Amino acid sequence: MTTIRQRKEIKIAEVYEDNASQEEEEELERQLLTVYSGKGLWKILSLTVGGTIGLCIGFLTSVYLATLHENDLWFSNIKEVEREISFRTECGLYYSYYKQMLQAPTISKGFHGLIYDNKTESMRTINILERMNIYQEVFLSILYRVLPIQTYLEPVYFYIYTLFGLQAMYVTALYVTSWLLSGTWLSGLLAAFWYVINRIDTTRVEFTIPLRENWALPFFAVQIAAITYLLKPHLQPLCEKLTLLAVFISTFLFSLTWQFNQFMMLMQSLVLFILDCLNMLPTTKVTWLYVIQVTSLLLVCVLQFFNSMILGSLLISFNFSVLIARTFQQFLNLKSDEHIFKFLKAKFGFGATRDFDANLYLCEEAFGLLPFNTLERLSHTLLFYVYMFVLSIMVIMAIVVALRNLSDSTNVQYLHKGRCTIILKPGTAYNLMHSILFGCLAFSTMRMKYLWTSHMCVFASFGLCSSDIWELLLKLVHLYTPKRMKMMKYSIPVLILIYLCYKFWPGMMAELSELREFYDPDTVELMNWIKSNTPKKAVFAGSMQLLAGVKLCTGRTLTNHPHYEDKGLRERTKEVYQIYAKRSPEEVYSLLKSFGTDYVILEDSICYERRHSRGCRLRDLLDIANGHVMDGPGENDPDLKPAKHPRFCEEIKRNLPSYSAHFTRVFQNKTFHVYKLSRHK
């Protein structure tokens, strides 16, 4: 009985407990469903709000930069020739092809004019589509033709609004990258605001609109955002394929729009290679990224009529292997980019050089080291301080993870797994190495700082809003609780945003109210004179920068131009520049006539240059290359000798018989002197 009773009691208890347990499980399921539903709704709300803010801040940045451009030049009020002159140096050259395509009777004739161009370089027929990255100008010109906008939107505005629109995409991509890294759109908002208030160091689109990098960098930013998302673990197959497609499209467009794409992607390949070797990235995804890079570059190569500079690029060499690439480059006998390697060799102290092209780069401020005042400006907005703080933490974490991955000790892996692996996710590791390598590039060459500073904004804001970083720091000081971590993650970025708004918002509003006007009467006078007083087929010689404007504003044929990625053009430019060297009038005349020159333009700003120090003035570079002693007090290399002739650009103004026999002055103002070459040989 006792046993039976006990069994009955057990059964009753079991039934009761089973019922209670079932009720508890049902209650738990209801609670979990409520929590997950709440989390799902919160996630949808966060995505909606964050996405809307990202699009709005991108659009507002675009409007802000466009307004600054308008206020600085009064672009809507100045004449067409002044608008075109405002596109300085190579910017004017690129825009001229957009103008040329629009002026062509048909699209097919426009293409024919670009493929068989005989106005960009006199006495030569060159393929502009093969030589330069101008498919964006071609695409825009076609789009302007087919869209019903000609009646209310001028071609120049369609062009510049497109570029400012790309800035909206650029800032939105930075916003998304920071959001993906940190998990909160607050990080993206801080990144975008830092980008805007540091615009002197993050972009130069407002005063060099058609520059190739202003087309390319927005696509590069989209590519980085897509790669960051691709490196997230456990992506759904469809999602992964769509992300790979986004990476491919952005990589292809980046490659198509900038001639220096291969060097940027080479650094990207190095990032992938290093992280793959350290087991920080999934090998399969890295392989896909290699394939995408090579495929994009080869497609661009086809569109650029098998440009040899692309075929023999270091990127393809790296991705296909050093041995094959060496044989490949020797086969092509590459010389298009040899000036870049001469420049790098001299820049990093591997022997002095008298090479004119290398020295031309070395003496330009844009190709010098990053000035210290850049870091001062970035520190003024707190960006540099926050960036260095985040970078230091992440570098330490990367070193620990790398040592763990390279070690065979399971104890080490277990010891550090909780602290480091979570922080250094594949996307974070990629952006860390990307930031370091492009930072090194920026410090070595100032012009490349725009690749780094925009990513600084992303990386610094991510660090401030990263749960992993704050969790680690709080654990190190034994103060960690989830509430404290969240408080730090949100409160510090908000406080910094409030501080930045308080400090910089009034200045931004004041800047928008400043009204200036484009004013360059001497250049306007020169362009109007050329259009009115010279034959349409006349050939002009002069400085690269000025001749780009001559082609854009007048349509005349040039002897040389600023797109320097061709060995033949570089040699021609050096010979044309003998007008500023110590050469006889007969020698200069013979050189200019060999290029079919009808008119030569001399600029006082070059002949009597004071912007550069001795040894870096254009006339000094020519003297050194010609083996002549430089002007003015100072040292000269012992093997340099005094020139037999005076400086041409100075002596021609004396109108001596030996000069007037070959050159006749036909135009003069305070800045320019135009001489017509005699027809006799």
UniProtKB/TrEMBL annotation:
InterPro entries: Dpy-19/Dpy-19-like. Its main location: membrane. It is found in: Membrane. It is a multi-pass membrane protein. Keywords: Glycosyltransferase, Membrane, Transferase, Transmembrane, Transmembrane helix. GO terms for molecular function: mannosyltransferase activity. GO terms for cellular component: nuclear inner membrane. It comes from the Eukaryota. It holds the Pfam family Dpy19. The chain crosses the membrane at residues 44-66, 173-195, 215-231, 238-257, 263-281, 312-332, 382-403, 423-443, 490-506. Belongs to the dpy-19 family. This is Dpy-19 like C-mannosyltransferase 3. It comes from Sarcophilus harrisii (Tasmanian devil).
